[in-house]
Amino acid sequence: MNALADPAMKAFAGTPLSDAAEWDAYVAAHPQATPFHSRAWCEAITRATGHRCHLVTARDARGGLTGLLPLHHIRSPLFGQALVGSGFAVGGGILADDRAVAATLASGAAEMARALGVPSVELRGGPLPEGEGWMRDEGVYAGFARDLAGDDDAELLAIPRKQRAEVRKARASALTVTIGRDDAERDDHYRVYATSVRNLGTPVFPKSLFDAVLDAFGEGADILTVRDGGRPIASVLSLYWRGVVMPYWGGGLADARRLRANELMYFALMSHARARQCIAFDFGRSKVGTGPCYYKKNWGFEPQPLAYARWLAPGRRARDTNPNSAKYRMQVDLWKRLPLWAANRIGPLIARGLG
Predict the structure, then answer these.
(1) Beta carbons of 214 and 221 less than 8 angstroms apart
(2) What is the pLDDT of residues 58-93, one digit of tens each?
(3) Which fold has domain 149-278?
(4) Is the pTM of this model over 0.85?
(5) What are phi and psi of 24, to 5 degrees?
(6) pLDDT for 190-211, tens place per residue?
(7) Does domain 3-139+307-319 have CATH number 3.30.499.10?
C-alpha cells in the first residue's frame, strides 16, 4: 500500500525524541522551509499559549518522511476555532516533496479538522490546496523582502531619496542602539511593543510568547532597541533564518516618529544582520493599502502579493480576526483609550485567541 494515501496525524504538547529528530532533519533539508515549520517555533507557541499543535505527516512506502504540516488548534470564545498552520506566524503551511504529497497533506488537514469538530483550516504559506472545501484568500496582504547591500553606504543608496534623508538624520541624532536577549532587553521590548499596539487599538500578545520564541531560537533571535537618553522608544524582536533577517515583532512609543527612531532601528538592524552574515532583509507582511504597506515601499521594498488558503466545513463561516473589520471598529476605538496597565492585563487573554 502506498503510504502517501494515508497521512499520519499526531498531536503533541511535547514531541517524542524520535519524532523530534526526524522533524528537525526534514525541515533542515527542505529548501522551502521557514522558521514557522520548525519544531522550535511550534513548540514555543504551544508552551506560551497552550494551543495544542497537531502534526500531519506523509511518508513513502519505506516509511520515509515526504512532507509535514504543523497545525495549531486555536481556540477562542471571541473568535472561534481554527487549525492554523502555523500559529502566530506569517508563513508556514504545507512543506512537501512534491504536489502529490502536498495534496495528501491538505486532505489530512481537512480530515483532522472534521475529526476535532473544528470548522476551518487556515494555511499561511506553501503550496495552496485545491478541491472540495478549499478556497484562496488573495489581495489582502503583501510581503516585502529584498537583498541587503554590501555595506552601510550602499544600503543608504538603495533607499529612495526621501526616506534616505530621514535615515541620515536619524543616524546623526543622539539616539543609541542596544542589542541583546537578556531579561532587561526583553522587558524593555515588551513595554514598547505593548504600548505601540495599544495605541493602534490592538490587544497585545502575552509576554510569554516572546520569551518562548527567544528561548527556543537561541542565537537565531534577538532584540534591537533604540534609546533616547537610555529610555527605550522603539524596539524590534527579529528572527534569523538561512541568511535572512526577519524583523518580526516591533513597535515604537509616541516619540519614536518625532525622533525618527524607527528609521534608525531598521537601518541599524540591516547593519547588524549584515555583520551576522545575512544577505536578505524580510520586512514581513502588511495589509495592502495601509500605512505600514506604504512605509515599507518608502524603504525601497516592492510588494509581493500573498495568497493564503482556507478550508471550511460545509455550512460554516470563516472566523474574522482582522482588526480593520467594521465589526470591531467600536472595540478598537475603545481599546486605544484604555490605561496601559489594563490593556496589558486584558490584552493577552484576547490575543491568545488570534493565532
Answers:
(1) yes
(2) 999 999 999 999 999 999 888 889 999 999 999 999
(3) Aminopeptidase (3.40.630)
(4) yes
(5) -60, -45
(6) 999 999 999 989 899 999 999 9
(7) no
